[in-house]
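Q: I'm writing a short explainer about DUF397 domain-containing protein for a general audience and would like to include a description of its predicted shape. Could you first generate the structure from this sequence?
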Amino acid sequence: MPIQQGTTHAWTKSSYSTGNGACVEVKSPSVRTVAVRDSKEPQGPALSFLPEAWGAFVARVNSGDSTTGRA
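A: Of course. Here's the predicted structure. Afterward I'll give you a sentence or two in plain language.
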């Protein structure tokens, strides 16, 4: 299930997680924040992104583009 901006307060494991321990979790507790963390370190740090930046990242990953656009 995709997260909903501003209404997903609980951490949600990525649908691409395969059970091998290499998982990310995301949540969006406010409309201006998408938080991401490593599921193996639930008490560890989390990264926060603007929804536009997170959406651009996800779109690029989904397209198979692994380049950063930088030389």
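A: For your explainer, you could say: The chain is about 20% helix and 30% strand.
Q: Perfect, that's easy to follow.
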